[in-house]
Amino acid sequence: MNNNSDDNNCENNIKENLHKYVEEKHIEIENNIKLMESCSEIKKNMEPLDINVNMKYVDMYNNILLNHKNILNTKILVDILNKNTEKSIEEDKQIQEHLDNIDEIRKQINEKFIYKFQLCHDYIQYYNETKSDMSQLYNMYNSNIIEIIEKNKKYNEMIDFLLEEYNGKFNEYKQKIKIDYPKNYVIQLIVSMIILQDNRSKTNLKFKEYLISELETQKKEIFNQTQLSDKINLNSTIMKECYNMNELINNLNEKLEEGDIRYI
């Protein structure tokens, strides 16, 4: 009897649990049906997602995240994300092109600076190689002029000395003789002074001719040296590079402004 009673209890429990399970499933199905109906209603009221390709990324994504009506529009959302991914790839390519352009400009500027430095280096090398010869040359020019002037000066001093000697002899002789004494000696003194004076003028003219000739020769040689420097073109090239420094900076700014790299 006890065994039969236990079997009946067990069977009743199974039926009760089964009934409970079926009832719970019915409730779950009803809830799912309601949820699907709600989703369908939401879909009817969904607004199209903004896929304006010109919109900023942050504005586009904020529009998506803040628009709760679009949470189930997965297909369009994925389409937007894919388009933005493709757009970002193209933008990366454009950015890299701008960076390459900037690198090329930097390369050109560096080459220009290297060229400028090489010009300066060449000038210093040329200066060190020629400075001794140039100093000697200009010292020789000055020495030649000074030598002519010194010779002219000594000559004039000599003539002054001779003239003063004749002047002194005349005054000494004048004190010793009578006024009616023969004057051949006095005449000879005065004639000597006249000849010396005349010769001094002619000789000074000759010295000035020597000096002018020396100056003309030096002028011609210096002019030829300047022409030689122009032919070498080093000085004028360096001066031109000095004037081009601001132009180089302006060209750089213009090249940077030619490309729209504001989004970098």
Characterize the structure shown:
- With 264 residues, the chain is an all-alpha fold.
- Helices cover 88% and strands 0% of the residues.
- Among the domains are: 1-45; 130-254.
- Helix 3 (74-176) packs antiparallel against helix 4 (184-232) and helix 3 (74-176) packs antiparallel against helix 5 (234-258).
- The two termini are 91 Å apart.
Please describe the topology of this protein.
Elements: H1 2-45, H2 57-66, H3 74-176, H4 184-232, H5 234-258
Class from helix and strand fractions: mainly alpha
Shape: rod-shaped
Low-confidence runs of at least 5 consecutive residues: 42-46, 260-264
**Assembly state here?**
single chain
Q: Strand tally, please? A: 0
Give the terminus-to-terminus CA distance.
Answer: 91 Å
User: Which percent band covers the strand fraction?
Assistant: under 5%
Chain-averaged pLDDT: 77
| Number of separate helices | 5
Biggest β-sheet: count, sense, barrel?
A: none
Rg on CA atoms, Å? 57 Å
- Helix-strand string: HHHHH
Fraction of residues in helices?
A: over 70%
Short description:
The chain is an all-alpha fold and 264 residues long. The chain contains 5 helices and no strands. It has helices at residues 2-45, 57-66, 74-176, 184-232, 234-258.
